[in-house]
């Protein structure tokens, strides 16, 4: 007799080693755990899942590769995004899906996600041998656990939670190399929403094993698959306790659509993702490759009826294997997740109609199941007969318990609402505290900078003040010197021409040259210096005029002396009149007079008796004495005038 079994590869699952992670999580406070759940969901619950490896390997034999589901004798089961999100406590709308296949996360982003410095995180990086890839980059389990333990002792919860979450991602959610967290898991951790990547890795790992007919280990999140399977298996005592001692393949082969727990009320209100972009179904990108899954085969698990055979166009399959280069397909998948299509709201009723059930049975008959049908069915629970009075009593108690249960459920929902509000308020308070702390730190740094600037301004003001005092003192000094020169000039003006020539001019030549000061660079000093230079130029012109007049006077005096020494003649010689500006007599002095020779007895001034010449005043030019204060950097003019009297 020909076998009715379908050939399937021998598959195994590997339980993750999570004892050290449990130890770290048990050291957390209740508030730290709540904050962990707010940031990373319920992934810590996966550490405490009891894994039945035989149940999972048996389930893998029922995988239907073309349809991306598990096909049993009269029903189908398919893991969905919505179910995985419920188990992990994630919201599909909080973060986008993982689309980082083939991309290496920057060290700066890794450090930011871990709330640590880039230098410290970079020091952990190492390479490890990978049988599939050759070499994998990432962090070893020991290094991360050591860092987590140090943060736990310091109760530095923010980075501790991040490091612990990364350990769960690398060792439980996306296992690859043993005791090693590679860049693929780190990329999914940074993305923030692992649901789509987890579902992709599950379907991809199953499909690759079936396609190559290869035995081996399923690389997927084993605790998550166990939780999903348990949520749909019968919850009746005869199945859970297994009194007949049946093996898992016998128990699963005996299951019918009436035995399955199809729908959880926790999914009420959840929107169903139907397709993305131009794809007829949902394209998934994981840490190993890309593959599609078909939500239309899982409507019953999400509360909607399975009415008819699904349209083949909605079951179109594709797969992008690890190592294959197809940038166009990757771009198409990334764009598709920007345009998602959700199932319209309809009345919920998780039943299967005959047309759909008939289609499943025909497919089972064509493709066969992986095991032989069970000879004996599962033993039903024995029927117990009780008296009517006892039944009514139990019914009354049952109604009381149901009422109490309903009240407890209402109270539980209310407390959950209060808890969510408290968690939300706590998170907002933490965010505000961090923002205020950052603002205070920034304000403190600004105040320190302002204090340093004020100190520099004080020092600059002191220097400017000293310079101003020095300039004021220099100004006073030169003003006093200027006044002294003015007084001296007045005295010189009151003296005669001889004192002026002998004393005043040499003094002008010997005036000290003041050193230039920066005070002269001001506009007021420049105006004053320009005026003094103008007066100095006028003085030089007057001195030049004085020289010419003095030469003329000397010539006239020589002519007068020559006339006096000449012998007398009957006609008295006439001396030309000397036109000159007379020097006014100074106070307490008389004009100088020259008496003609031959008149020793004296006569009055300007007497000219009998044609004899009389004495006249010696003409000298009137000179205005101005002693200018030289400008900074301008040398005093050197005036040397030879005078002959």
Give me a quick take on this structure.
By secondary structure, the chain is mainly alpha-helical. The chain contains 18 helices and 13 strands.
Labels describing this entry:
13 strands, disordered C terminus, elongated, 18 helices, single chain
List the SSEs and their pairings.
Blueprint: E1 11-12, H1 19-26, H2 30-40, H3 53-61, E2 63-64, E3 69-71, E4 76-77, H4 81-88, H5 107-114, H6 118-124, E5 126-130, E6 134-140, H7 141-154, H8 157-173, E7 180-182, H9 183-191, H10 195-212, E8 216-217, H11 222-232, H12 237-241, H13 248-253, E9 273-276, E10 282-285, E11 290-293, E12 319-320, H14 327-336, E13 340-342, H15 354-367, H16 388-494, H17 497-509, H18 523-565
Parallel strand pairs: 1-8
Antiparallel strand pairs: 2-3, 3-4, 5-6, 6-7, 9-13, 10-11, 11-12
Strand order of the largest sheet: 2-3-4
Main sheet summary? 3 strands, antiparallel
Poorly predicted sequence stretches spanning 5 or more consecutive residues: 376-383, 571-645
Strand content: 5-15%
Distance between the termini: 163 Å
Describe the 3D structure.
The protein has helices at residues 19-26, 30-40, 53-61, 81-88, 107-114, 118-124, 141-154, 157-173, 183-191, 195-212, 222-232, 237-241, 248-253, 327-336, 354-367, 388-494, 497-509, 523-565; strands at 11-12, 63-64, 69-71, 76-77, 126-130, 134-140, 180-182, 216-217, 273-276, 282-285, 290-293, 319-320, 340-342. The protein has 645 residues and is mainly alpha-helical. It is built from 18 helices and 13 strands. Helix 2 (30-40) crosses helix 8 (157-173) and helix 7 runs antiparallel to helix 8. The protein has a three-stranded antiparallel beta sheet with strand order 2-3-4. Strands 5-6-7 form a three-stranded antiparallel beta sheet. A hairpin with a 4-residue loop joins strand 10 (282-285) and strand 11. It is elongated, with a radius of gyration of 57 Å. Helix content is 49%, strand content 7%. Residues 21-365 form the DUF7745 domain.
């Amino acid at each position: 007799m020909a076998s009715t079994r379908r050939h399937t590869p021998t598959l195994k699952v590997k339980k993750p080693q999570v004892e050290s992670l449990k130890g770290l999580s048990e050291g957390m406070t209740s508030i730290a755990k709540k904050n962990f759940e707010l940031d990373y969901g319920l992934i810590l619950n996966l550490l405490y899942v009891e894994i039945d490896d035989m149940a999972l390997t048996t389930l893998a034999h029922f995988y239907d590769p073309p349809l991306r589901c598990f096909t049993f004798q009269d029903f189908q089961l398919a893991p969905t995004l919505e179910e995985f999100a419920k188990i992990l406590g994630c919201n599909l709308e909080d973060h986008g899906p993982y689309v980082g296949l083939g991309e290496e996360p920057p060290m700066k982003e890794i450090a930011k996600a871990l709330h640590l410095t880039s230098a410290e995180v970079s020091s952990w990086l190492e390479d490890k041998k990978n049988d599939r890839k050759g070499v994998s980059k990432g962090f070893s389990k020991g290094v991360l656990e050591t860092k987590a333990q140090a943060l736990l002792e310091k109760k530095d919860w923010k980075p501790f939670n991040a490091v612990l979450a990364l350990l769960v991602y690398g060792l439980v959610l996306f296992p690859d190399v043993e005791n090693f967290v590679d860049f693929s898991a780190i990329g999914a951790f940074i993305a923030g929403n692992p649901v789509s990547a987890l579902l992709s890795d599950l379907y991809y790992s199953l499909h690759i094993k079936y396609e190559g007919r290869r035995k081996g280990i399923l690389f997927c999140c084993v605790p998550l698959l166990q939780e999903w399977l348990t949520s749909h298996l019968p919850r009746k005592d005869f199945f859970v306790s297994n009194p007949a001692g049946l093996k898992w393949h016998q128990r699963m082969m005996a299951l019918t659509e009436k035995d399955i727990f199809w729908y959880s009320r926790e999914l009420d209100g959840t929107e169903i993702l139907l397709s993305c972009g131009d794809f007829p179904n949902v394209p998934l990108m994981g840490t190993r490759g890309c593959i599609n899954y078909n939500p239309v085969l899982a409507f019953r698990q999400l509360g909607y009826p399975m009415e008819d055979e699904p349209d083949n166009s909605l079951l179109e399959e594709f797969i992008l294997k690890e190592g294959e280069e197809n940038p166009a397909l990757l771009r198409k998948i990334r764009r598709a997740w920007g345009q998602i299509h959700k199932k319209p709201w309809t009345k919920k009723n998780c039943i299967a109609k005959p047309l759909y059930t008939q289609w499943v049975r025909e497919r089972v008959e064509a493709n066969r199941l992986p095991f032989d049908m069970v000879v004996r069915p599962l033993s039903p629970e024995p029927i117990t007969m009780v008296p009517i009075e006892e039944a009514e009593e139990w019914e009354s108690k049952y109604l009381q318990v149901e009422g109490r249960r309903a009240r407890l459920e209402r109270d539980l929902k209310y407390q959950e609402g209060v808890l969510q509000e408290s968690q939300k308020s706590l998170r907002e308070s933490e965010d505000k505290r961090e923002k205020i702390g950052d603002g205070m730190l920034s304000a403190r740094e600004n105040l320190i900078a302002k204090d340093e600037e004020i100190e520099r301004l004080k020092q600059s003001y002191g220097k400017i003040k000293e310079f101003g005092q020095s300039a004021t003192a220099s100004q006073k000094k030169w003003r006093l010197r200027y006044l002294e020169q003015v007084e001296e000039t007045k005295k010189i003006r009151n003296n005669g021409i001889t004192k002026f020539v002998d004393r005043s001019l040499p003094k002008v030549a010997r005036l000290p040259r003041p050193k230039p000061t920066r005070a002269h660079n001001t506009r007021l000093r420049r105006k004053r210096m320009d005026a003094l230079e103008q007066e100095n130029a006028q003085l030089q012109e007057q001195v030049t005029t004085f020289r010419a007049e003095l030469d003329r006077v000397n010539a006239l005096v020589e002519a007068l002396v020559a006339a006096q020494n000449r012998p007398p003649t009957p006609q008295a010689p006439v001396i030309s009149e000397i036109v000159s500006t007379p020097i006014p007599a100074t106070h307490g002095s008389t004009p100088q007079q020259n008496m003609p020779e031959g008149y020793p007895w004296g006569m009055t001034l300007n007497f000219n008796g009998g044609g004899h010449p009389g004495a006249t005043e010696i003409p000298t030019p009137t000179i205005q004495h101005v002693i200018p204060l030289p400008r900074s950097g301008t040398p005093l003019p050197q005036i040397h005038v030879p005078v002959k009297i």
